[in-house]
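BUG: 3D viewer hangs when loading the predicted structure for this chain

Environment: internal workstation, default settings.
Expected: structure renders.
Actual: progress bar stalls at 90%.

Input used:
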Amino acid sequence: MPTSDAAGIRQRIPQVFGRIADSFTQNSSSRGGASVRGSVIHTTESPDGSPWGIVNYFKRAGVGASSSYVLGTIDRGDGFVEVVRVVPEHLKPWTQISFNPYAVSYELVGTAHRTREQWLSKYRAQVRTAAALCAEDSAQYGLPVQRAVPGQVGHVDLSKYGFPQSHWDPGPGFPWDVFLEDVQAFKLKRTEVPDVPEVKAPAIGNRRPEGAPKAIPQWAWDHREWDKGGKEGPRPATVDAYLKANYRLPQWYWDWRRWYESEYRTRPADAPIIIPKWAWDHRKWTLEGSQGPRPETVTSYLASHYRLPKWYWDWRAWHDRIGGAH
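C-alpha cells produced before the viewer hung:
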C-alpha cells in the first residue's frame, strides 16, 4: 500500500464512520444467533453516483433484498465516498441467500465489468472506503484478513464455501490484493491502543463488590468512581483507551459535545443541523438531574445502534444500585 494512502489513517477512519448516514429498511431479519463470518463485497450493477437510489430501492416494501451498507462512487475530496447504512449489524441483510446470517454486506454502486485499472484509479476511493469498513468488521468479529470465509470475500466466492450463489460480483477486475492491504492497514490503525497507565484505586469505592461478575473490566469501575466523584478532573485513562478502541463516534457527536459542555439545554439556533433530536433530549434530561426514565428518543437510538455485552448489563445493575457502596 503506498505511503500516501497509509498516512493519517488513524485520523481518516473517524471521517468514514462519522459521515455514515443511517436509513434503515424493514427488509432484514434476525441473525438467529449466528456469528458474523465474513464481509461480503457486491456491486449494484447500476450507474455510478450516489448510494441513495439503491438505498431507496432496498427500503421498498416487498423488494425482498437489502444490504448492510451501500457505498457511492464520488470521492468527497478526502479519499473516501459517501456511505449509507441500511441494515444494522445485529440484523442480517438479505443479499447472499444462505450466507445472510453470517454476513456484513457491502453494495458498491457500479458494475462488475470494471477493469482493475478502473478500480485503482477512478474508483480508488470506493475501494478504500470499503476496506476501512471491512477493517472494522475484522477487528470487531475477529475475522482474519484474507479472501476466504472467515474473512473478506466477494459475492462470487461464496459457492466454494458451501453457500451456493449465481452472482459473479464484484467481478474479475476487483483488486483484491490492494483491497486486502488496505484492510490490514486500517485494521492495524484501528486496533492500536496507547499504553494505559495503571489507575490506582481512590480511598473509597472503585473496588469490585463481592460477587460482582469477573468479566466486568477495570475501566468500568474506574468510570463508576469518576462518575460518583462528580466527574472531577479528566476521564480515567482506562476509559479513554476503551472508547478509542471500541466506538465509532460520528462527527456530529463531537459537534454536539461542544454544545453539551456549554449552558445550552436545547438546540441553539446555530447548532449543526445534523445533530439529532435524541442528543438534545438527552442533554435536557441530564441537566434536569436524570429524573425519570430516559427520553424515548434516546432509548430508541441506543436499542438500534449498540450491541451491549452481557457484562455491561451486569455492571449497570451494580452501577444503578441506590445507596450502594459500589
